[in-house]
Automatic annotation (TrEMBL):
Its cofactor is Zn(2+). Gene3D superfamilies: 1.10.8.50, MutM-like, N-terminal. Belongs to the FPG family. GO terms for molecular function: 8-oxo-7,8-dihydroguanine DNA N-glycosylase activity; damaged DNA binding; DNA-(apurinic or apyrimidinic site) endonuclease activity; lyase activity; zinc ion binding. This is Fpg/Nei family DNA glycosylase. PANTHER family: FORMAMIDOPYRIMIDINE-DNA GLYCOSYLASE (PTHR22993). Keywords: DNA damage, DNA repair, DNA-binding, Glycosidase, Hydrolase, Lyase, Metal-binding, Multifunctional enzyme, Zinc, Zinc-finger. It holds the Pfam family Fapy_DNA_glyco. InterPro entries: FPG_cat, FPG_N, H2TH_FPG, Ribosomal_uS13-like_H2TH, Znf_DNA_glyclase/AP_lyase, Znf_FPG/IleRS. One of its GO terms (biological process) is base-excision repair.
Length: 288
């Protein structure tokens, strides 16, 4: 799933390609991906792209007073095309094509979604805050307004909720997902199941520094890369997420996993849980 660093890089890449270009045609191939009806999609045709920005994990393409907002969810991606055929595309499960945007010179981009769970969302709105997911976003972890006092208030308000869930909840902090919550908790040497309101002052400072460093470094590594390079860059920069069974790059212990119904987390026992493996609850249920 694209998270803050990848969406930030996508926004920068598309900004360089789209700014001051005219949108000639927008094809919505997967109708379930379109979440709005007013303004209609065809209202974008003939508009001039002003900017491409990001709100959490949402991409925002602003054009002549309208906004084409994309949320790529778990299986979505943006693929730039130097040349696109003028004929309307047909649904194709193999390609996963959901939306196609064609510019005035027949270049453009496809928005695709692979997998069986279709969660990609496309909005055409007059203001970004017209998208419910953007209106409910928490603070951006790289914004200057995201201070250690803000993080402290978030964690205390969350009570005894597990800290990983709090960090990846978009209404709490915008842009951190499953992968980077694993990474920053590893950097902070903190269990993903630690109660949010149990941090000492030193642990709070360590976690705050980890958020700013891990997310900031990932943004720096991704900046300037084309969309086609971002997935590989993300994977190469991860210390524990997606690396079950491999050695922790910090201590050499084996990275462990806890599985849930539709996701999993990875962690290092030595670095994060005092050497104690966490119970894999899905396996525990199967063994009963």
């Amino acid at each position: 799933m694209p998270e803050l660093p990848e969406v930030e890089a996508l926004a920068l890449d598309l900004k360089g390609r789209l700014t001051d270009r005219a949108i000639a045609k927008v094809h919505v191939v997967a109708i379930n991906a379109l979440k709005t009806f007013d303004p209609p999609v065809h209202a974008l045709e003939g508009t001039l792209v002003d900017d491409v920005t990001r709100h959490g994990k949402f991409l925002d393409i602003s054009a002549s007073g309208l906004h084409l907002i994309l949320h790529l969810a778990r299986g979505g991606w943006v693929r730039w095309r130097a040349e696109l055929p003028p004929i309307p595309p047909r649904p194709n499960q193999k390609s996963g094509l959901a939306v196609r945007v064609i510019l005035d010179d027949e270049s453009g981009f496809d928005v695709t979604e692979m997998g069986t769970k279709k969660r990609l969302a496309t909005y055409v709105v007059r203001q970004p805050l017209d998208v419910p997911g953007i209106a409910s976003l928490g603070p951006d972890p790289l914004d200057d307004s995201f201070t250690i006092e803000v993080l402290d208030g978030i964690l205390k308000q969350a009570g005894r909720s597990q800290i990983k869930g709090v960090l990846r909840h978009q209404g709490t902090i915008a842009g951190i997902g499953n992968a980077y919550s694993d990474e920053l908790l590893h950097a902070a040497r903190m269990s993903p199941f630690k109660p949010s309101n149990s941090l000492t002052d030193q642990e709070l400072q360590t976690l705050y520094d980890a958020i700013r460093t891990v997310i900031g470094d990932a943004v720096d590594r991704s900046r300037g890369l084309a969309a086609s390079e971002l997935k590989g860059e993300k994977k190469s920069g991860l210390a524990v997420h997606g690396r079950t069974g491999e050695k922790c790059p910090v201590c050499g212990d084996i990275v462990r996993e806890v599985s849930f119904a539709d996701s999993s987390l990875q962690y290092c026992p030595t670095c994060q849980t005092g050497g104690k493996p966490l119970a894999d609850r899905r396996m525990s249920r199967l063994l009963k």
